[in-house]
Amino acid sequence: MELSSIQQIKTLIDETGRPLQGYLTSIPEQLDVESFRYFSTMDKQRSSVAKYFHYKQFQFISVFTPDYVIGFAIADIRYVGNSFCYLYDIKRNELLEQSWLRPLGLGYSMTPSPWQGKAVFNGGELTLKIEEGVWSAAVKSKHFSIDITLTPPSHDSAPIMVSSPTGYSGWTYTQKHNALNVSGSLKVAGKSVSLSNARAGYDFSAGFMRRETSWRWASICADSKGTRIGLKSRGGRE
Fold first, then answer.
1. Residue 67 is part of a domain; what is its CATH number?
2. Which of 55, 71, 96, 148 could pair with 184 in a Cys bridge, judged by C-beta atoms 3.0 to 4.6 Å apart?
3. How far apart are CA 202 and CA 64, in angstroms?
4. Which domain of life is it from (predicted)?
5. Is the alpha carbon torsion for 232, 4, 130, 184 positive or negative?
6. C-alpha to C-alpha distance for 200 and 181, rounded to whole angstroms
7. How far is CA 88 from CA 30, 54, 62, 188, in A?
8. How many angstroms separate the CA atoms of 28 and 13, rounded?
9. Do the beta carbons of residue 38 and residue 45 sit within 8 Å?
């Protein structure tokens, strides 16, 4: 399914204030959190303050080259914003990491749309952009710099888009796409790295998640004997 030909869903939230559920056939243009009706376990509508602080959002990109595995993300948990990036040197078996924290929305911004928008952290040191479902990113860290665009390998390649219930009245929307083509530039320790054989994936997740959740992550992109392999898993124990 080519992204440009998908019939877009305007909003994740329906006219009753509830989210669409299950596997979606297109990317929502907006999550429309403002229209969501959020209730406590006593079936009382929660305050706007509770609704604001209980909403969480996460955006992540991973890049795989023959020599390096790279990942970077921006997470907004309302009380604090967190951004991190890492580079794993396969030949040296060395992991290099860098992270930032910003309180209460200061120094970062997120997009409420998995279809169109931009997320920025630390004055633009990490920027994730979405344009009609196509992702691009620019990162400047201590260990690498990258400026890339991710594109599907074929017209019938589309992301997984799932909306599921969480807790008593919450929900989580997640959108993932792996084994994507990579174009642009990458420098490690000031030296240019070819992206001709690189593959990448992204994860956009947002919603009203449980306060305590243990996550188990996996993200794989590879070419094996002429077959392209992409896997992204996010198992959670609530």
1. 2.40.370.10
2. 148
3. 12
4. Bacteria
5. positive
6. 7
7. 34, 33, 11, 11
8. 9
9. yes
